[in-house]
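This section describes the prediction task in plain terms. A model, or a person checking by hand, is given the sequence of a single protein chain and must write out its three-dimensional structure as a string of tokens. No templates, partner chains or ligands are provided. The sample shown here is typical of the held-out split.
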Amino acid sequence: MELELETEIWLNKNIAPHLHNIQPTKKTLFPVRISSHSVAGKSHFYNNNDVVVNEDICGTFEFNSRTDFINKSSEFPTGYDDIVTGIFLADGHGENRNVPKDSSKWEGSGGERFVALVKKHVTMALKSIFQMAIYGVKRDLEMEKRYKYFYPTSKEEEEKKLENSFLKHLREGLKNFHRVMDQSLSDDDPSLCNDNGSTICICLTWRSHMFCINIGDSNMMIFDPITGKALKVWKRPQKDDMYNVCSYDDTLASYPDYLHEGQSLFAVRQDYNFVGEYCKQFATLKGRCFYSLTSPSSIYGLSLINTLGNRNHDGRTLSRTSVYEFDIQTLLDKTEGKRFSIICVTDGIKDVLDSTDIGSFHLNFQEGINQKYEKIRVEVENERKRKEIYRKYELEFGAEPVKSKSTNSLGDVLVIENTLDEMPVDDEIINEMNLNDVKNNLKNIVYGYNKERPLDIYDVSSLNIILRHFKQNKINSFKTSDYYNSIISSSSSSSNTSDSEMYDDNSQSQTTTESSIKSYYPEFLTCLTNFAALCQTLDDCTAINMEISSIDPNRFHNENEGENSNCTSMSTSRSNSENDMV
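The expected answer:
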């Protein structure tokens, strides 16, 4: 697959801006594979679809952090240990803009322009944090010499001491990512940053460490691809009182009646005590409250309590970065196939699909759709019973009709007739999946959320995309894909093979075959985002996935061979291997 490296963001020329089954251009210690997909929300179609706005953005980054102070460690092969690679996802929001009659003059919404600015600066901000950590190591060494803290150590101890010092400063730098990023954004375009902003999720790997940082209400989850279960490993130091299945949301939506997945009552109460005096309730939906963060400097209310940008709300937001640190090998040991998938999603997805829904949908499309349909059916039935109780109360006591305000209004969405020609389903059975049943359940899910309206054109479009992917790829679950079989075969062969046998030609050919197999995740994310768009939604739906697998022992073997050869041959082999990496 042809890739282009531009401002250190990986791009795929064929289907840009969507990433699709790509890998880093440089060698990483733990093999990485990345996919993503994005769908614009229903509220972001204007002028009869002449303008389509998507205020979400996602991408990747890669840079080398090797310096004279952070030397190569004997625990890692040369050329791998200091490559920083990762993914990011941002969900923008901002000022309302009128769409001109001539759609060619549309310059983008405030949220669109802000997330484009975020994409421009995210890599530079991370590199500056790594650079500040390196300066911190230099200061530690100077203080050691000045105050004679130094004591004789072995080479291994010295390398470990330098790495620990670097990690200490790196953790502090990542905690202040929001300050570094806000300063860079404000210096570039101060007026844009006044009433526009975005959430951000970042997952980066360095050596055997993975750091995940989160600002706002976008979400991160780590799945075991074999079982489809989310790992309960998310906990912020000195912030959370228990581990959870996903990252924490910086939002007060639905508090105190309802907590989002990943939140704890202890943490939300702390947040409300800090910003509660600036909040006002602006809407209710199905008995849940929604708050807006107000500011005398802005005419706009902010539905988040923490965000990048939004300078007119300074002093009223939480202004913090949630940091999670993981040891990659420890996470791999928690999974059955020695690999895990970290998925970042925007609120357009997580508001209608929790980690259990995503996991079941990942393992089996039809089962996931059926489970979601059953949930919607129960919700609709409970809503019907609630309205009956209200009516009985009104008749019995002569009370005025109870009015319930709903924010789930699709009045601005173009609605079409049921006679719209939808995609025909010729093959009823695809890998034991009945597409007609799937289609009917998908339509029932839409009716469950939008009971008073037929399918609109965007629902039909998302439905057709899902069915087309089922037909084209002929997969209905992760366990029927070739990718699943490659994972099972590679894990079983590695467990039944000795260390010496891991380095033979058969192992090398097996690794090559596995890397050439197309990942399952591009199809999964395409169906996931469109499924979320079917379920509600006025918001954009975007997901990006980074799959990390266990260390490839052939890399150690090849590196040891290179060290035994002369320097010229070693540098030649390394440059060739980097050029061949896709």
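For orientation: Residues 110-146 form the longest helix (37 residues).
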